[in-house]
Specification:
Blueprint lengths: L4 H11 L3 H20 L4 E6 L5 E10 L8 E3 H7 L8 E6 L5 H28 L6 E10 L2 E5 L4 E4 L15 E10 L6 E5 L3 H11 L1 H4 L3 E9 L3 E8 L6 H6 L4 H9 L4 E6 L4 H8 L5 E8 L4 E6 L4 H5 L4 H10 L2 E6 H19 L12 H9 L5 H5 L3 H5 L6 H25 L4 H12 L26 H13 L2 E3 L5 E3 L11 H34 L1
Parallel strand pairs: 2-3, 7-9, 11-12, 14-15
Antiparallel strand pairs: 1-2, 2-4, 5-6, 5-8, 6-7, 8-9, 10-11, 13-14, 16-17
Helix pairs in contact: 1-2, 2-4, 5-8, 9-11, 12-16, 18-19
């Protein structure tokens, strides 16, 4: 074989690996080809001579007594070949390489390529292992399925689908800036992995764009990102004369706008970092206004945030994005509640506290005999909560408590708990059907006949209820109770005490409507009487 030193040198420079690694790869390749060709159990070694030619040798070890003639040689025979041979030394016998053939050469080529590829992989791993998060300039080289293969100069890198922004698409030859996500050493996709979706990309872009961050005056404390949609970044200034947020925004927003263009229009929220978690979360949830913050568990980093009812959707954000990014940014678990939710929760908690601590003596007010209460107290049953948790069998095991008394106890307990259920129902928001029924009831037209001679009652509006004087109401209600049914001139009956369509309205509201109808009917009767008197006077005149 001719000299291959020049080829080894060129391959080493191209792949960026040590030339000795290539030489060892070539030796291993020749040994693999020789073993496949000679098919013997001899111990073979490969070596490069001074002329750059690869030689294959059979190695035998010098011993006193030969047990394996394939790998051992006696001392006298060894000294016949090399007079300096001694026990433990090696004697090499050259093997012909010109008989290896095409198949052996192909085997050697595959081994060389495999060894060089492994060496290149190790070299890339050692070079990029400690460079995670570093910003690099890449060129899109090709597309493999949904992954981009980019050229970093010395080596290729992979931009997988999960590390891409959903609003970005590239073509072959485009130059992009990425951050090094990591290095995969083994497997099919071994090599450098870069990212366009990592929060570190935004941080590196700010470091390049903002001089105050580069020189250390302003530092980036945390960054949370959902690529393609929104990023929240917290910054802190070591100099009280330097506004950290203003430095990142720049004059007329020039600095942050250049980063937004690089990220294809991704929204960026820049907030000021604070050591106080309450102030920190207040700024992290911007633009929502926070009413109050409660630290639930400092050890587990759990907090509760209460906002105004109108601010709840803004604080949560689209698909929960705002609160999710804020939680990632500050590193706390955040529970957001509206003022109405918090008020209901406190009411229920107070009711639970009252119920859990209520003595059994309160059941006297709910129909339980005092002697039965004394028996329960004697049996060490002091609270309604404990009494309600007992089964009928456990109650009957108490002295002087029989099945009838158990029924009385159960009725009293049900009555006691029922008062809290009623209060809760009163505070519960009305459903859509009940609200619609109430609106229909307050705006419904009176259901009376409109035959010839009838006088239809005017329509009612909810605002009319407040215009009826109390004295008139009492007078008309008394009159209505005495004569609820009146006859019209034509003899048709008008039932003013039965108003249809108001069955779903509250009783107070129904009373007001009925009272107003009596008042309107009284007015109509007075007007009719005055008209009759006027007509009689006109005829007599």
């Amino acid at each position: 074989m001719g000299s291959i030193y020049q080829s080894i040198e060129m391959l080493s420079k191209e792949k960026g690996i040590d030339p000795q690694i290539v030489v060892d790869a070539v030796k291993d390749a020749m040994l693999a080809a020789a073993r496949k060709h000679f098919r013997s159990q001899e111990e073979l070694v490969a070596d490069l001579d001074e002329n750059g030619n690869i030689q294959i040798y059979t190695v035998k070890h010098v011993v006193d007594t030969v047990e394996d003639p394939i790998t051992q040689i006696a001392l006298p025979a060894a000294q016949g070949i090399n007079e300096n041979a001694e026990i433990g030394s090696e004697i090499r016998f050259p093997k012909p390489t010109d008989t290896l053939g095409r198949i052996s050469a192909q085997t050697a080529k595959q081994v060389i390529l495999q060894k060089v590829r492994e060496a290149e992989r190790d070299s890339v791993f050692s070079e990029y292992q400690g460079r995670q998060g570093e910003l690099v300039n890449c060129t899109i080289k090709r597309l493999e399925l949904q992954d981009y293969i980019v050229d970093m100069g010395k080596t290729e890198a992979r931009l997988p689908k999960k590390e891409q922004s959903r609003v970005e698409a590239f073509s072959v030859g485009d130059r992009v800036r990425c951050v090094i996500k990591g290095v995969e050493r083994g497997g099919k996709n071994s090599g450098v992995v870069v990212s366009r979706a990592a929060p570190e990309l935004v941080m590196r872009l700010f470091e390049q764009e903002v001089p105050e961050i580069y020189d250390g005056t302003v530092s980036i404390k945390a960054c949370a990102r959902e690529a393609g949609e929104r990023t929240k970044i917290a910054v802190f200034s070591r100099d009280r004369d330097v506004d950290s947020v203003g430095a990142c925004v720049g004059m007329k927003g020039m600095r942050v706008q250049s980063i937004i263009r690089e990220l294809r229009g991704e929204k960026i929220d820049i907030i000021e970092y604070s050591d106080d978690p309450v102030q920190y979360v207040t700024k992290a949830l911007s633009p929502a206004k926070i009413s109050r913050v409660t630290i639930v568990d400092p050890a587990e980093k759990h907090m509760e945030v209460v906002v105004d009812d109108l601010q709840l959707s803004l604080a949560i954000g689209k698909r929960g994005q705002n609160v999710r990014l804020a939680a990632k940014l500050i590193g706390w678990k955040i529970d957001i509640k509206s003022e109405e939710e918090k008020r209901r929760e406190l009411d229920l908690r107070m009711a639970d506290m009252v119920i859990s601590g209520a003595p059994v003596s309160v059941l006297i007010d709910h129909g339980l005999d005092e002697s039965i209460v004394e028996k329960l107290v004697a049996a060490d049953i002091g609270t309604v909560e404990r009494l309600g948790a007992m089964t009928p069998e456990e109650l009957e095991s108490i002295p002087d408590i029989d099945e009838d008394i158990v029924s009385q106890i159960q009725a009293a307990v049900v009555s006691f708990y029922g008062q809290y259920d009623t209060a809760e129902d009163e505070h519960a928001p009305a459903d859509a059907e009940s609200i619609e029924a109430a609106i229909d009831a307050t705006t419904a037209e009176p259901q009376t006949g409109e035959a010839e001679g009838d006088l239809p009652l005017p329509g009612r509006e909810p605002a009319h209820f407040g215009t009826i004087e109390t004295g008139v109401l009492e007078h008309d209600l008394a009159r209505h109770e005495a004569a609820p049914i009146e006859e019209s001139e034509e003899g048709e009956v008008l039932d003013l005490g039965n108003v249809e369509g108001l069955s779903g309205a509250p009783s107070t509201l129904r009373d007001l409507v009925e009272s107003e109808e009596v008042f309107e009917s009284h007015q109509l009767e007075v007007e009719q009487s005055e008209a009759d008197q006027s007509d009689t006077m006109r005829r007599s005149g």
